[in-house]
């Protein structure tokens, strides 16, 4: 039951139809007896700056989860950034502190990497292709670099976006081999779709599946369906895969601690989640 005493966490993005986080957080809050609620809020890009500023003034708001397409533009609105945000150039968590200042953090990359490692895959020394250099792709690339991958191929429809990400990565990981400009998946240990492709019916596949080897691990960030067309095609080839919600379950414990709601494990969250597609 939502009351006048309920603490709100805004879940901000557009469109909201594919949001899964409320179906994980809210059942967990209920089970733990925590008077808090995650509320989806759709903001179109043209309304974002004004709308975000207004939402963050709500007196009963603890902070916000930020998702596509606002992870990059949120950075300019904040008072303080963690190192993860500086490297990724994007933010997916905003905490409004007691003095009203806004702290931004980034958990996408950590959630993705923790999910891959939990499945027994080796990242140290691996070669990886990341398609998409926006907020989520940048965060995943940064966390993969921190995990010790040997080579990153960065691809984005906007070449300047991939170049900017490469420049930020070089500043922190000068020994990392970085390449840009191709989304050919042949020869990589891990490939990641960090684009919105797969959210809409009729979207093209982000990779040429014919060139994906059965030994390649395929990761996805799109959550509109559990197994997107990319993941279904990859499974048909014998590939191990990671669904988009795996990243969520791995990162939410970090979010909960960030917002001051205590500790949880991915297993606890899965036991209470009420995800629907």
Spatial extent as radius of gyration: 18 Å
The strand count comes to 12
Unreliable parts: none
What is the number of helical segments per DSSP (H or I, 4+ residues)? 9
Tertiary shape: globular
Major sheet strand order: 2-1-3-5-6-4
Helix content: 25-40%
Strand content: 15-25%
Average pLDDT score = 94
Structural category is: alpha/beta
Describe the structure concisely for a colleague:
This protein has 277 residues and is of the alpha/beta class. It has helices spanning 22-32, 48-55, 83-88, 108-118, 135-146, 159-172, 229-236, 244-258, 266-272, and strands at 7-13, 36-42, 61-66, 80-81, 93-96, 102-105, 127-131, 151-155, 177-180, 190-193, 217-220, 241-242. A hairpin with a 5-residue loop joins strand 5 and strand 6.
Molecular structure report:
By secondary structure, the chain is of the alpha/beta class. It is 33% helix and 19% strand. It contains nine helices and twelve strands. It has helices at residues 22-32, 48-55, 83-88, 108-118, 135-146, 159-172, 229-236, 244-258, 266-272, and strands at 7-13, 36-42, 61-66, 80-81, 93-96, 102-105, 127-131, 151-155, 177-180, 190-193, 217-220, 241-242. It has a six-stranded mixed β-sheet. Strands 9-8-7-10-11-12 form a six-stranded parallel β-sheet, sandwiched between helices. Strand 7, helix 5 (135-146) and strand 8 form a beta-alpha-beta unit. Helix 1 (22-32) packs across helix 9 (266-272). The model has no long low-confidence stretch (mean pLDDT 94).
């Amino acid at each position: 039951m939502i009351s006048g005493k309920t603490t709100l966490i805004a879940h901000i993005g557009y469109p909201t139809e594919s949001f899964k986080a409320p179906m994980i957080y809210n059942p967990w809050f209920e089970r733990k007896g925590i008077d808090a609620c995650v509320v989806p809020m759709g903001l179109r890009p043209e309304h974002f700056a004004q709308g975000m500023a207004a939402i963050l003034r709500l007196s009963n708001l603890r902070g916000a989860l930020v998702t596509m397409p606002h992870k990059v533009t949120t950075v300019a609105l904040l008072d303080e950034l963690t190192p993860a945000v500086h490297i990724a150039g994007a933010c997916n968590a905003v905490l409004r502190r007691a003095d009203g200042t806004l702290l931004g953090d980034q958990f996408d990359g950590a959630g993705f990497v923790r999910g891959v490692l939990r499945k027994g895959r080796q990242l140290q020394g691996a070669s990886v292709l990341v398609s998409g250099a926006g907020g989520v792709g940048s965060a995943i690339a940064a966390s993969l670099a921190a995990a010790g991958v040997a080579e990153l191929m960065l691809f984005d429809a906007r070449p300047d976006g991939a170049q900017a990400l490469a420049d930020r990565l070089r500043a922190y990981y000068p020994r990392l081999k970085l390449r840009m400009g191709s989304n050919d998946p042949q020869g990589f240990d891990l490939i990641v779709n960090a684009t919105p492709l797969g959210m809409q019916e009729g979207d093209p596949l982000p990779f040429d599946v014919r060139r994906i080897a059965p030994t390649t691990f395929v990761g996805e960030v799109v959550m509109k369906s559990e197994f997107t067309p990319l993941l279904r095609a990859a499974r048909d080839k014998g590939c191990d895969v990671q669904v988009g919600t795996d990243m969520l379950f791995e990162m939410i414990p970090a979010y909960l601690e960030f917002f001051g709601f205590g500790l949880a494990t991915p297993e606890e969250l899965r036991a209470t989640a009420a995800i629907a597609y």
